[in-house]
Amino acid sequence: MDINYELYKVFYHVAATLSFSEASRQLYISQSAVSQSIKTLEKKLGQPLFVRSTKRVTLTPAGQVLLKHIEPAMSLIRRGENQLLDTTGLAAGQLHIGASDTICRYFLVPYLQQFHRRFPDVPIRVTNATSLSCVALLEQGKIDLAVTNFPNSNLNHSYIQKTVSCFTDVFAASPACFDLRGREVSFAELKNYPILMLDKNCTTSQFLHSQFLQHHLELIPQVELSSNDLLIDLARIGLGIAFVPDYCLNARQDELYVVKTVEKLPGRQMVASINPTLPVAQSTEEFLALLPTV
């Protein structure tokens, strides 16, 4: 089907903003021109792409399917433009990484510092998202590199470039509030205590729930949050027992202790991944080379 690229470009901006007026502003064309382009595209495709009302614009199911394919295409075009326009000597003109707050704080900072010292003219962008969400950003071409926890139910093995760290998860408790030191606690007993953990949209939550299910136990946490540091703060004041990666406890060893469990938790990994269907920029390759291999 012969459809002008400009129509898809207009569609992308309307779909990304869910606003005809905002798409008009971004494209530097009139709102009527935006509306006419969408009507033309809908006519050519034979189905509506948007539901319009006086208060908002939403995508139809057909529009959602089209956006899923248009979005990575637009990202690929932008990558090509950046590569041609770049004058820094690194192929993409910038480094765009996706990672969780925890991975950024406890792992990535020294490597970002090294990269910035070596390539001070290359802009660095970091998008904070859960490890699950980072994979979606990678698939859409919105980031160059994702550093995520693994296992990760969303991550295709072909995306993984290297394992950069290994860690274990632990239950951390305040000695003043929970007297569990000196013995091993079963999952069956532990689930009766207030458990503090990351929310269900995180790989860590998926991991712990799966471990309990393997022992035919249902885990109902007391608190679910999006920050490991906040979980540790709440555990420190005795609100519950926090489930966190072990490397988060280094600075808090005097305030919390690790609860030993009968059932041994398997280790997890931290992996660096790219989208193999997209060109890999030299800046991404340089940063990958800085990361350790374990």
Order of helices and strands: HHHEEHEHEHEEEHEHEHEEEH
- Secondary structure class reads alpha/beta
Strand content: 15-25%
Helical stretch tally: 10
Mean pLDDT score, rounded? 90
Rg over C-alpha atoms, rounded to the nearest angstrom: 23 Å
Low-confidence stretches: none
Distance between the termini: 48 Å
Strand order in the sheet with the most strands:
4-3-5-12-6
- Shape descriptor reads elongated
Task: Give a count of the beta strands, DSSP E runs of length 2 or more.
Answer: 12
The largest pleated sheet is described as: 5 strands, mixed
Residues in helices, as a percent range: 40-55%
What is shown here, in short?
With 294 residues, this protein is an alpha/beta fold. The chain starts with a helix and ends with a helix.
